[in-house]
Write a structure and sequence with these properties.
Elements: H1 12-15, E1 44-47, H2 58-73, E2 78-80, H3 88-97, E3 102-106, H4 111-120, E4 125-129, E5 146-151, H5 153-167, E6 172-177, H6 182-202, E7 207-209, H7 226-236, E8 242-246, H8 250-261, E9 266-271, H9 274-277, E10 285-291, H10 293-305, E11 314-316, E12 323-325, H11 339-352
Parallel strand pairs: 1-2, 1-3, 3-4, 4-5, 5-11, 6-7, 6-8, 8-9, 9-10
Antiparallel strand pairs: 10-12
Helix pairs in contact: 2-10, 5-6, 5-11, 7-8
């Protein structure tokens, strides 16, 4: 069983996990017969967070998912970018006013605005990526017409952390995030657990900088700016030679700092396979920690368009292939000959429950 590649369809997103992604509850709209029949009466919409749809990360994956779904359904999607947090509520209001049947919001930062909009518009279906829509923390989704799509990325980050510990020559690896939200720190936590497990199994002493299991280094936002570059530089100055930036475009600042350092430092991507989505950093990428955001979005939009919207939360795991790690690509010849086999075994052990990876989604 391989965990270094994500299957093209990620079909597990539709059939496994905490809930089945495609179960019906909405009434079926009229469909086109594909031969000039009546067009499908369905308008899917999406609003990004401040990272924008060209972030090479989770906003872009969401955009790709809704675009593919709209093409398959034979409809046109409305997509709106947010420039800042103050845009979230107005953008949602605009989509409601345009008659959207389904609104996908991309990112935990939109949680409050999504819940408010969903409560005010119970006849509209909502999907939120990377958030449980549980702002009162009572363990349930705050509005019955919201479907959360979540990813237990700690499992995949565990494998990436193990790989980083095996690859490092300075015995020091680092991570930093945009803001200390659960959907950010879950990567950092899994990464640290993977390094710690490597140390236990191998009798090594690889150090993780930037996350202690509770708190760590954060830029205060998700922009590729000088603050993010300085945070990355602070880790590089401490002899880190594998770096995991978690927070959309902040990886671009980390890449700039790595190039300025003038020594061999590998980077680990998040959400998407950065070697594919941003070839300009391919030479820096050890691997990437993957979320099936594009497939999860596609499946949810198609289901809603076919009258089968199901608000039950979905959680992506290694078992259902909702999360995973990318190939080593340019680093394949540089990692140890035994690493791939070890990662395969670790992935199988996590799925079997023989290795526990802790996260807020596994509690």
């Amino acid at each position: 069983m391989k965990f270094t590649t994500r299957k093209a369809a990620l079909s597990g997103l539709a059939i496994f996990g905490a809930a089945v992604l495609l179960a019906g509850c909405a009434s079926a709209p009229e469909e086109s017969d594909g031969d000039g029949g009546e067009a499908l009466d369905f308008l899917p919409c999406m609003v990004s967070d401040a990272g924008g749809f060209d972030d090479k990360s989770f906003n872009q994956l969401g955009f790709e998912g809704i675009t593919k779904a709209a093409d398959e359904l034979g409809v046109e999607a409305i997509t709106v970018e947010s420039q800042s947090e103050t845009d979230y509520a107005p953008n949602l209001t605009s989509l409601v006013d345009q008659g959207c049947d389904l609104i996908v919001t991309v990112g935990f930062a939109l949680s409050a605005a999504t819940v408010e909009s969903a409560l005010a518009n119970p006849d509209i279906e909502y999907v939120i990526i990377d958030d449980a829509a549980d702002n009162d923390f009572d363990g349930t989704v705050d509005s019955e017409n919201i479907k959360p799509i979540l990813f237990d990325t700690a499992q995949a980050a565990f494998l990436a952390g193990y790989a980083a510990a095996d690859f490092t020559t300075t015995k020091t690896v680092g991570t930093f995030g945009g803001m200390n939200f659960p959907t950010v720190s879950i990567f950092m936590d899994g990464f640290k657990q993977g390094v710690d497990y490597y140390n236990e199994q191998k009798g090594k002493g690889v150090t993780v900088l930037g996350w202690d299991g509770t708190d760590g280094l954060f830029t205060g936002g998700f922009e590729a700016n000088d603050t993010a570059r300085q945070v990355a530089q602070s880790l590089i100055d401490q002899n880190v030679d594998v770096l995991l930036p978690v927070g959309g475009p902040i990886y671009q600042s980390a890449a700039a700092a790595i190039r300025e350092a003038g020594r061999d430092i590998a980077m680990i991507g998040v959400d998407a396979d950065f070697t594919v989505t941003d070839p300009s950093v391919a030479d820096l990428m050890l691997t990437s920690i993957l979320k099936g955001i594009d497939v999860g979005t596609y499946e949810a939009v198609v289901a809603a368009g076919e009258g089968n919207f199901d608000p039950t939360p979905f959680i992506g795991t290694l078992e259902n292939e909702g999360v995973g790690v990318a190939p080593f690509h340019d680093y394949e010849s540089l990692v140890s000959d035994t690493l791939q086999g070890e990662l395969d075994d670790l992935g199988a052990a996590i799925i079997a429950g023989d290795i526990e990876v802790k996260s807020y989604l596994a509690e």
